[in-house]
Amino acid sequence: MATNGIGVSVRRKEDKRFLIGKGNYTDDINVVGQTYAIFVRSPHAHATINNIDTTDAEAAAGVVAVFTGDDLAADGIAPLICGVTVTSDDGEPHRAPAHPALAQGKVNYVGDHVAIVIAETLAQAKDAAEKVEVDYGILPAVTDTASAADEGQQQIHEAAPNNICFNWPLGDKQAVEAAFASAHKISTLDLVNNRMVTNPMEPRAALGEYNTGTEEITLHLTTQNPHLHRLVLSAFNQLAPEHKLRIVSTDVGGGFGAKIFIYAEELVVGWACRKVNRPVKWTSDRTEAFLSDAHGRDHVTSAEMALDEDGKFLAMRVMTRANVGAYLSTFGTMVPSYLYAFLFAGQYTTPLIYSEVKAVFTNTAPVDASRGAGRPEATFLLERLVDVAAADMGLDPVEIRRRNFIPVDAFPYQTPVVQCYDSGDYNAALDKALALADYDGFGARAEEAKSRGMLRGIGLSSYVEACGIAPSAAVGQLGAGVGLWESAQVRFNPTGNVQVFTGAHSNGQGHETTFAQLITELLGVPIEDVEVIHGDTAKTQFGMGTYGSRSLAVGGVAIAKACEKLIAKGKKIAAHALEAAEGDIEFADGNFTIAGTDKAMNIAEVAFNAYVPHSYPEGLEPGFDENAFFDPLNFSFPAGTHVCEVEVDPDTGVVEIIKYSAVDDFGKLINPMIVEGQVHGGIAHGVGQALLEGCRYDSEGQLITASFMDYAMPRADNVPNFDIDYAPTNPPDNPLGVKGCGEAGAIAAPPAVINAITNALGVKHIDMPATPENVWRAAQGAA
Amino acid sequence: MYNYGVGVPKNLVSPTPLLRPLFTSYSYNLHPVNNIMEMSFEHRIAASREQVWKALNDIEILKASIPGCDSLISEEENTFKAQITAKVGPVKAKFKFDVTLTDIDPPNAYTINGQGQGGAAGFANGSAAVTLREDGKHTILAYHAKANVGGKLAQLGARLIDGAAQKMANEFFVKFSELAANPSLLDAAPAPEAKPILPTWLWLGALITLTAMGFLLLR
Question: Residue A394, Cβ neighbours under 10 Å: how many?
């Protein structure tokens, strides 16, 4: 096995530049003649725009230009799009009101884009932006997810009666009702999945440059998917033809979903740089990020489980209202539908599931994918409902899970909610997690805590998620506007080192290391001779980018396929050079060898021969450079059990996580250290949602959690040392045997934490975030 | 009971705590957030009710009492425009207020209603019911103010605005009490005519502005 190949915790190649301050983020890029843009944003949640007076702003010092929605429209720039269609229960596509990049006569949320002010300096742009006079006609705002579609509510969009985007049923309603009618017991739970702001450390930024000679726009962006940006900006927004638009995304300081989407600022900056024929730069400040990044979650749900006498799940019913915000973001329809309801089976054999999701418009920022995207919402309601059912049946939470697990010999397992799980061994992960958490010793620990006046609780979360997004045919049938394959090009240089061009794009995941390990493993090239290149549409072939834990499970396989092609070609070249039959050439550890001999040729020599083909197989193309595309056969289904143990101070409501044990099935691990980091980050994200993070709009639609003073992110002192282990299975549909790992922690953790808190308090439910105040109130109610 | 600390004027009596903080609860949807700030306050002034009423309607006294008040203009009866500059350190913003006066009951009470635009700092809308009652030779000025703020004020200020508003109110009343009891302290000649104005809203606006500036500095 190669020294730095699959399964080795190689230190991250990219970290040197980050540690010595040589990272190159979008805002680090400055170009000659650069101007600065500020967006004038609506301070009102819902208002007509009666007039915009830009006279004073245009006359202000240093101002280059001020543009409004009329200027964009006059140049034929089309509104922003939502890329996935969901069919509503009336047979019609979801309602998609126009989403202009700069407002057209109306604003629909605080932070909505009204105008762009471009000036010589940032300070001048800020000053001038204050001089843009907007005459608003204020309208009542709708902010509450649960009641947004109620009779008599203020209407937001003419194109969406009753503020409904779609009402999407899934499953056999009658069969589910029949099962409920004959059930031994019905467990019910009403819950809220709290709205989150994704908050990558690096805020969004855009720098547009127009070259009058080549007529090309170069747009430097903070994006997880440069080619998707180029495609949408070209094909749908009419910014520029695809071959005249270059998207460059250098280092990205975290995305977690928030940098997938095609945002108004990106389109407007790209357009404006050509309009003013000067480079235009915009960098979000933190409060702008709170206002205008797509938010996550925000569901209100009623769920019911029908059980038989033995605690077996007979049927499940879920009614959800999902907030999509004021407009549909790029994947705003997909998250509360396909990425959500398709997960309702979880790890269980529940044979009948019926759900209805009503997606509603509100006067809040658009809601879209945020780490986990739909799957945390599904997992939270299911794993909470299972705990409620366990209590109703008088069963231990472990026991009710075991009784309903999909057995290991049932894979591939077709769920009643579309997905077909590839592989899994849920008991194995549960067993390991219980041992790691010392579940059996909990009673003694709880007694000891009680002697100190503390309430100790333990909670499980046995999750499954669908990632490695996604088979193109499947998502095409579901209404996606794109295919979700991935691409790779593996290029040997004549001197034997390797450049890997991937359509995936790192926003911190360590692709430059993990993908290089694949090359080392598969081609025997030393890892220091491998460079991974991504994030520039002028450098890499079309690719779909990074989200849905897909980079390795889809993009990694494309790299492996390109390697296979290189090996096949290399055998021809080596056979010719070694004067042997192609069929006699074997490849291992970087060497092409005549089988049964010690006559061999290193792959670097083969590459040199391919570029200097003085003696070369007749008819074979020169060059040693292969590309491959991989369209996955199925989603990837990581699963596992997380166990959280907490101590609650009943006097203050403060929750301390004492111990957190996670056992996951991610298939084969390429770099265990990077995987562990992903698990840590995911759990911290989930703990943040469970205990701390809550995005709040007031009744007027004002965002009152728009800074880190009012929006609490998890910090080191909110999480314990994690105990992590794996219970891998081999996913038959993935050629590398890998599953995605980037979102699992954020999906699994919230119910594990809340199940532990409800266990400690002896209450049925507590909504997230379980702040000290909420927990204290719940403790008082329970007492 | 608020602890005002050092330098608190002695004539502040029985400050009533704010009715409720901006954040009532984190319990989702059970308690929709209503981002309305409410303040009730009583203040003793060493002057007769008539004197105080006159002062409340004296444009010069009010201008002098409101920190950063650049202009105060009555355009028509019971309608006013005010511009207030608030400055904290290097940051400064102008608030423009449109103010109307209703429920006028001299010398007992009036209600002031205002809309203020603070540019990048956001906006504030609100009203304050002001009453005067005699207490011996002194007058007790009581007000109940409601305001909702938007834009940056709401985004950054939710947790701090109450305390800052109280502090601003104190500053206003120190000055106003001095001038109401002794108008000659105003250097200028007595105001030509007492114009009916409704200033309480203005200092409320000013304090909101100042608060906003504080947040900008903290960012």
Answer: 9
